[in-house]
Design brief:
Elements (H helix, E strand, L loop, with lengths): L1 H21 L19 E2 L1 H4 L1 E8 L1 H22 L4 E8 L4 E6 L4 H11 L4 E6 L3 E6 L1 H23 L8 E5 L3 E7 L4 H8 L5 E5 L6 H15 L8 H11 L8 E7 L10 E7 L9 E8 L5 E7 L1 H13 L5 E5 L2 E4 L11 E4 L6 H19 L4 E9 L1 H54 L3 E2 L1 H30 L4 H33 L3 H34 L8
Parallel strand pairs: 1-18, 10-15
Antiparallel strand pairs: 2-8, 2-17, 3-4, 4-6, 5-6, 7-8, 9-14, 10-11, 12-13, 13-16, 14-15
Helix pairs in contact: 1-11, 1-14, 3-5, 5-10, 11-12, 11-14, 12-13, 12-14, 13-14
Amino acid sequence: MNNLKLRTLLACFGVALTVIWVLPNVVDVSKWAWYPSKSKLNYGLDIQGGLHLVMGADVDGVVHESTTRLIASLREELPKAGVNLRDIQLVDGTRGEITIQADAATRDAVTKHLSDRYSTSLQTVGTTADAVTVRYFDAYILDYKDRVIQQSIETIRNRIDEFGVSEPSIARQGTNRILIQLPGMADAERAKSLINATAKLDFMIVSQAIDQQALAKLVEDAEKAGNYSMKTLKYSDYVTKLNQDLAGKIPDKTVVFFEKSQNAQKMEDGAFPLLLQTDANLGGKDLDDAFVSYGQYGEPEVALRFNAAGGNRFADLTGANVGRQMAIVLDKVVKSAPSLRDRISGGSAVITLGGRDRETMMDEAKMIATSLRAGALPASLEQLEERRVGPSLGADAIAKAKIGSYVGALFVVIFMIVYYKMMGFIASVCMGINVLGIFGLLTTLGATLTLPGIAGIALTVGVAIDANVLINERIRDELRAGASFKAAVQQGFDRAMSAILDSNITSAATAAVLLYFGTGPIRGFAVTLLIGILTTMFANVFVMKVIVDVLVHRFNVKKMSV
């Protein structure tokens, strides 16, 4: 009996939690400060309409640009290395192939310099008495192009956040294409212009004129006086307005930008202000590359490589500010603010990340390197495809899908009640809890519901009822064998469980494969199918067993039609 009480409590808790998660979708709970869940279900592009874009990234152009910068850097570096340089000729910019012409007496110095500085990126493909021909390693080019696509995706994602689009889909297609889906996005031209804009990267020294506590108080007072916050304005608009309101309260040639807290999902969920000097004059135009490297003990860090002019400015800037923090700012967002331990010369630098677990350090290193490349190496994007899905088309699609689901569910309910009587009615009630649970989990997980997802829900209804059919048929078999109703219920659930588990495990395995290898609509179908399997085991098996046991053991029901 105690076991039944515990199962009843668990069932009631699960149903109550489901209702709490689902309620924000049908009732405006934003004004209820006490309500524990305010998340709403996100709808995909095929349901609420929006913008579908396929952009082509000019990755070959970026490699060519990198080769051009390489030539400029070598023109600065080789004479300092004692090379009597005659000329550097571009052979193939898309492969980074160049020919360096120098006096025969200093040709070995050219080879040594390339080996010391570019051993991981350049290979020698030919030599003559007075010339060396080199080009990028194939593996380096592949990795470089992959990083270009990833940095483009990162930049686009940062830009799309300005629109406040729920669940934008930004994914790679092939070797040089990016798929962008913006549900609910109507202003296509503004979206495209923002996507194609180049991210702005700056290196800025953190000012010590105002301590952190006093700065936070200034920000708080400005927000109260202006009646705004980061949650009510777009981040870029918020920063602009804030700095206008702080004019005269912070020193000249300084600005307030924000760094996102480590555990915050969005900037407005947790950010702290930094007062930055605006006179550093060092930015993305001075950076050649940024990539993840490893320190003395194998810890992840971020390696930076500046061009010749940028290297000199970086050395001067770090030398003049030893012991202070230098903020790395991308589109007015502080990505990192490491302390400067010494003057950094030679055109290269390393950002160390501190003592945290290796996985967290690696994720942060990749994020910082990608952010830096997003500012330093923007790939031009060409629009290859555009489709606009109107809200009316999405509404028609969802209306038809709803009608289909309702009709299918109605037929299932009628069949269960007519064929299995009272047990069929209980199964139908549990099916309602099942569907409610699906929407509850989709809401709380922040998943996006698409038309294929609705198909997954419809399939879940069929799978769930299949489980109840197995249970009811097993109960009928036990009753025919002469067992009491109480014993028949127990044996029916026990003996049907193996078949139910087998069918659900195989369905879950299929859904997992679709989720891992699929894209777009296929993933949407797989997500709802996986969630549906979980809710089926809870509602149509566990909750149904609890309801029947309560009726039999607590209310002494001797028999129910089945």
